[in-house]
Amino acid sequence: MKASRKDTRRTSLFDESMEAFYRAAELIKLDPRVRLELEEPDFEHIFYITIETRDRLVPVSKEDEARFKDLPASSVKAGEALEPLANGQLVLHRRALLKADITLREGVLRIPKRGLFRIEKGGPKKFKAYRIQYNQVRGPYKGGVRFHKDVSLDLFKALAADMTWKTAIADIPFGGAKGGVRIDPSAYSREEIEHVSLRFIYKLKSVIGPYVDIPAPDVNTNPEIMAIMMRQFTDGERMPHAMRGVVTGKDVRIGGSEGRAKATGQGTVYCLEEWARWRGESLAGKRVLVQGFGNVGTASAEILHALGAKIVGVQDAYGTIHNEKGLDVPALLAHAGAPDNLRRSVEGFTGGNKLDREDFWKLDAEIAIPAALGGSITGDVAENLKVQVVAEAANGPTTPDGDRVLGDRKIDLIPDIICNAGGVTVSYYEWLQNLRMEHWTEADVNNRLERAIKANLGIIHDIATNSPQKTPLYDSRRFVVGKKIDMRTAAMALALRRIENHYLLEGFSQ
Length: 510
Ligand code: NAD
Description:
By secondary structure, the protein is α/β, with parallel strands linked by helices.
């Protein structure tokens, strides 16, 4: 049978993510002891957290509805006390019952304008949690916290390793970490998510800190959750103000940095500006596909739109929309951010056509920005892409098979470890501002970020094209390997050289 391009081996995500590590280690003849140090994480923390959940109102199934046809409506309304969840259920806060007229039959009640719901008892729930501290030779462990139903030790090991390479590429004095909780956040209330966040930090307190390990937002976590985590860590401490740098990605009013919210998307756009410059082109008029419309996807789309690029397709977990003339990005942002759009989805946006999920990556465009979860650019997807460049705003969006196809088809790649390094770079600026008790302007932050991203991407491009040079911004002469290589391996070669320097110059304690 003809060999297919589909992934045939079943390897772990971690093994897949380490392919570039081994390629680059071979190429630069990484010191064997350093290689062993970097092949596995320093620490794998796996623990459990429990919280108390509130009672729920769960929609009655279609078949059961007929039995309650004559059930009169109760006088409770969906709102703050009956908190709507993204999964269609309502959380029952007892204050909803105060002064209400309730008619219950077999535990079912009718809520005006919402329909029939069955009361289900809440109670204690247990969740599996993780923190992988991969490497700290260059500085404190650093990495995001993800709340998602599909997380695993394997995934967090891969993401924590990625953070180790990313902080080295961004040339900031941090190591790598990642962690989070196995939970479907759409099924829990704000208060329950707050309790999960508090318990997460309560359990981790002895192994994190501003000079030890610094969490940040990732998928389904945000500045609000960072505030809760900071409070839990600093509560009762004698000098809580000196510990604000324990998490980054905070609200600017409580020690967050200007520019942090958009920093990852901004970094992606700085990379794309350089890519266009190498080709003697500009981003104006380029057609763009954005997958994921959360923190990173929205910022990338907004900034590119402002630069005159056309966002022709956007896909999130719930829907795909397309407009070949370019979507009205401010209107799309308003649609996704509307208070009643609980899933913050692009679904239902009237300024574009609805598209089948599998047709998204086949759209005509010059730029593809995967900004959702890992593994979306598979070999098959890559075969059908019509774009000139894939800018990996998400972590690990391209499978090894996808990588090979992109290479064969000469589609350019801006690898994740530089493409989305804007977030952690501004996290470093936030940490510095916290320690110095300073507050920088957005212009200051973006100027520094632009220099940092463009200089380090420049070094990676020089390694890939084997063009050693010293420019006013950087010196790539120490990093080239003597032949042309792909961008992902080039990025990894840069990271490994910088990490290796620490081990070799500082030596090993025995
Ligand atoms: P987010 O939770 O704000 O948004 C995630 C988006 O992806 C949502 O729009 C969601 O609907 C969409 N999505 C989820 N599953 C999908 C699917 N199967 N198909 C299409 N869309 C899907 O997350 P974020 O912070 O924007 O992070 C996105 C990616 O960027 C992640 O890979 C994350 O690790 C990476 N990243 C984030 C940051 C940061 O600063 N937030 C920094 C570096 C890397």
